């Protein structure tokens, strides 16, 4: 069974105007698809072809890791966004954020800062590790599962995530994501599952 591109959880134009259909056409339809194609080519006829994507993210190295993690990270990113997202987290997630960041505003600022200051390609992650929430940066395809943390949500900080819509204005991209698209419900589900 070859690795497959999971369906987007919404229509390709559903995140507009904050992230355009054209961005998703390239980011999902071409970049994400290419990671799937490259992983399948790299593992063909090898034992890794029988491992799960998460096992490869946790244990693989080199090109197999890079492509496996980029598949996993992008699927997680699509789920970290939703049409009419943004707003405020609620319930246990809100309580955990206030406990560990001081306020929801401080958590959002930490995520925004992580994306804005990331040099080169990578990801900003909200994670829980040892019962504590934190924002961590990952370079290139890096994934917090490698570090014993559980991802709650992620924001893609690669240029291909924002260049069509925002050109070089990375701060405008991350502000739009946090204001209009971030899916706190997804983070809350991941936090509940981590307990
Ligand atoms: Mn990407």
Structure write-up:
With 195 residues, this protein is mainly alpha-helical. It has two domains: 21-80, Helix Hairpins, CATH 1.10.287.990; 91-194, 3-Layer(bab) Sandwich (minor pseudopilin epsh fold), CATH 3.55.40. The chain is built from eight helices and three strands; from the N terminus they run αααααβββααα. The protein has helices at residues 21-43, 53-59, 62-80, 91-101, 104-117, 163-166, 170-181, 184-194; strands spanning 122-129, 132-139, 150-156. It has a three-stranded antiparallel β-sheet. A hairpin with a 2-residue loop joins β1 (122-129) and β2 (132-139). α5 (104-117) runs antiparallel to α7. The longest helix has 23 residues, at 21-43. The chain is globular, with a radius of gyration of 16 Å. The mean pLDDT is 97. The structure holds manganese (II) ion. Manganese (II) ion is lined by residues 27, 31, 74, 156, 158, 160-161.
Please describe the structure with a list of short key phrases separated by commas or semicolons.
195 residues; mainly alpha; Helix Hairpins; minor pseudopilin epsh fold; 2 domains; three-stranded antiparallel beta sheet; 8 helices; 3 strands; 52% helix; globular; binds manganese (II) ion
